[in-house]
Amino acid sequence: MTVVVIGIGNDFRRDDGIGPTVAAAVRRLHLENVDVLTASDDPAVLLDAWDGAELAVIVDAAAGDDAAPGRLRRWTPDETPPAAVSSHAFDLSAVYALGRALGRTPEQLVVFTVDAADVGHGDLMTPAVAAAVPRVVSAVVAEITP
Length: 146
Hints:
Number of helices: 4
Protein name: Hydrogenase 2 maturation endopeptidase
Keywords: Aspartyl protease, Hydrolase, Protease
Structural class: alpha/beta
GO molecular function, one term: aspartic-type endopeptidase activity
Pfam family, one: HycI
Largest sheet: 6 strands, mixed
CATH topology: Rossmann fold
């Protein structure tokens, strides 16, 4: 199985660093047939990264009215995304729809979001989000290992 794990975010925007942090932790596991990368909010990067993969797993910080810092959520394109979505003006469901229109989607997409408390400038995640990292890594590994 070809798998890509993509951590979306910015390490210098506090809780927005959850995606890259989880990606780095998964990379250190040296899982066979798993490519791991980080990305910003550029749809073209995602389309290139997940194109042809059997499974793409994305990790991103989320913000919204019902956000509870550190809460982990999982969704797939056939489900309605949670109210708290990407912490930047980035709609993963819209990027997936664009990929479908272009014939550039993975066979399966799983998105994990972690509700953020603070995406301001700084390189340290808030305690609630930092504490979620091991759970998110475990959730990602559970998706990609039989």
